[in-house]
């Protein structure tokens, strides 16, 4: 059986335990931090201070999701404390407008890294 991240199981004499969720982990973006548990099967669950699952999970546009995607893609690295997530933010695809509705990609970024417009060089203004 292939192990999945966050899966814990044990078969004993007359019983079977099956659980999901590794952590807690802490991921930070800017001045905001989230405590969460994670698993391959159910994804991340943001936790309350008492360790229970929070009723308020991050919205679809929360910076938590880009940070979590980057952390997973980069191997779920942790700091020496075993809790703090270590990751490099996803790089956006950089583009420059060359007309009213046209643009050219200047540098390809990471998948799901978003897009960012860069200003034209001073000489072309």
Please characterize this protein's 3D structure.
With 125 residues, this protein is mostly beta strands. It folds into two domains: 21-89, no CATH class; 93-124, no CATH class. Helices cover 9% and strands 34% of the residues. The protein contains one helix and eight strands; from the N terminus they run βββββαβββ. A three-stranded antiparallel β-sheet has the order 3-4-5, covered by helices on one side. A three-stranded mixed β-sheet has the order 7-6-8, with no helix packed on it. The chain has a two-stranded antiparallel sheet with strand order 1-2. A hairpin with a 5-residue loop joins β6 (93-97) and β7. It starts with 6 loop residues before the first strand and ends in an 8-residue tail after the last strand. The mean pLDDT is 86.
What is the structure about, briefly put?
The protein has 125 residues and is mainly β.
Compile the SSE list and pairings.
Blueprint: E1 7-12, E2 15-20, E3 22-29, E4 32-38, E5 45-46, H1 63-73, E6 93-97, E7 103-107, E8 115-117
Domains (count): 2
| Average of pLDDT | 86
- Approximate strand percentage: 25-35%
Q: Calculate Rg over CA atoms.
A: 20 Å
Helix content: under 10%
Structural class: mainly beta
Distance between the termini: 61 Å
Question: Quick one: how many beta strands?
Answer: 8
Helix count equals: 1
What key attributes describe this structure?
single chain; 125 residues; mainly beta; 3-stranded antiparallel beta sheet
């Amino acid at each position: 059986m292939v192990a999945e991240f966050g899966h814990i199981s044990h078969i004993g004499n007359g019983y079977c335990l099956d659980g999901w969720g590794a952590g807690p982990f802490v991921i930070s973006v800017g001045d905001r931090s989230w405590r969460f548990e994670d698993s391959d099967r159910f994804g991340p669950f943001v936790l309350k201070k008492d360790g229970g699952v929070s009723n308020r999970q991050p919205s679809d546009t929360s910076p938590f999701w880009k940070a979590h995607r980057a952390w997973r893609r980069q191997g779920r690295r942790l700091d020496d404390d075993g809790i703090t997530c270590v990751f490099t933010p996803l790089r956006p695809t950089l583009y420059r407008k060359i007309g009213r509705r046209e643009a050219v990609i200047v540098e390809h970024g990471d998948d799901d890294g978003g897009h960012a417009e860069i200003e034209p060089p001073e000489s072309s203004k």
